[in-house]
Amino acid sequence: MSTGDPTLISPAARDALQIWLDGLGALEGAADNTRTAYRGDVADFLAFMSLHFGGPQGLGALSQITTADMRAWMASSRNAGTGARSLARKLSAVKKFYGWLAKREGFEPTAVLSTRSPKFQKKLPRPLDKDAARAMIDTVELQSQQDWVAARDVAVVTLLYGCGLRISEALGLLGKDAPLPATLRIKGKGGKERIVPVLPAAQQAVNRYLKLCPHPQEASLPLFRGVRGGGLHARMIQGVVADARRQLGLPATATPHAMRHSFATHLLEAGGDLRAIQELLGHASLSTTQAYTAVDTAHLMEVYARSHPKA
According to DSSP H, which parts of the chain are helical? Predict the structure, then answer.
């Protein structure tokens, strides 16, 4: 449940939050979605503190928050139905904001920054096996009666599986990116750029879509277009994949993002280097990529047995 009513937050706190968010975008290249999530999380926290203390809190009062106040916020969030994973995300946003605010206002933020994140079981990626991934692409093509729409959907899903793109990255391609070259420069989360090889199958899928698409391609417009000519929305691809998933009898975890997980897992199974896969996925930390090792422990043990001198 969100409590981030702006009327509960003091003008000074609202202004500070906006300045922080603007700085994240301008200086750190934080994506719009990231800043929107941070805004909601921190606003909820500030609104709770206003209710907790009986009125909107200025910056001076916010600098006096104690460990007990933090516990009260976390307990209230859990009672409202916030899961441990979501609460950990909210706490992370609050800590980032408070670290910045403490430097700006010159106060000691230890009570906030030392608050322990709730423990939760990390969800492992749920990739499709190779046959299911291929079947997904084949079945996606059958979901539309319009040939160009079917070709478009196949092209997008092929980019997710063949290049490991996030759906936002695939739909962020512009007309100037076509025809797709052998490598793409992709700007991912936090403005981090990476070079991604483009398989011939992905190039061919995009070329087929371009030949059939009735909307003229322009350099500055989205490469993938909706039926009316505007940019294609992620929910359309999510719906197409969901329909294909149901036809194939695949679990609910078979989402567009699962195609990206499948890309990474199948590279690992083929002997791909974990550090190289990290670069291809655009993960800032190797620990994020290491989740795939838990998916494919059997393969790693096989590589160990075959390669280690003492095996």
Answer: 11-28, 32-53, 59-62, 67-79, 84-105, 110-113, 130-140, 147-163, 167-171, 200-212, 234-248, 256-269, 274-281, 286-289, 291-295, 297-307
Residue 166 a catalytic site member? yes
Catalytic residue, candidates 292, 304, 306, 310: 292
| pLDDT digit string, tens, across residues 74-133 | 999 999 988 888 899 999 999 999 999 999 999 999 999 999 988 866 665 578 888 999
pTM to 2 decimal places: 0.61
3-state secondary structure of 188: coil
230: alpha, beta or left? (left if phi > 0; alpha if psi -120 to 50): beta
User: Counting Cβ atoms within 10 Å, is residue 271 exposed (0-12), middle (13-18) or buried (19+)?
Assistant: exposed
Q: Write down the catalytic residue from 225, 260, 261, 266.
A: 260
67-90 burial: b if 16+ Cβ within 10 Å, else e:
eebbeebbeebeeeebeeeebebb
Reply yes or no on whether 152 is catalytic.
Answer: no
Q: Which of 189, 194, 208, 299 is catalytic?
A: 189
Catalytic residue status for 103: no
- Known catalytic residue at 189: yes
Beta bridge mates, 187: 193
Tell which residue, 158, 157, 175, 303, has the closest CA to residue 234: 157
Which entry of 39, 152, 166, 266 is annotated as an active-site residue?
166
215 among known catalytic residues: no
Q: Which residues fall within 8 angstroms of residue 215, CB to CB, at 6 or more apart?
A: 225, 229
292 a catalytic residue? yes
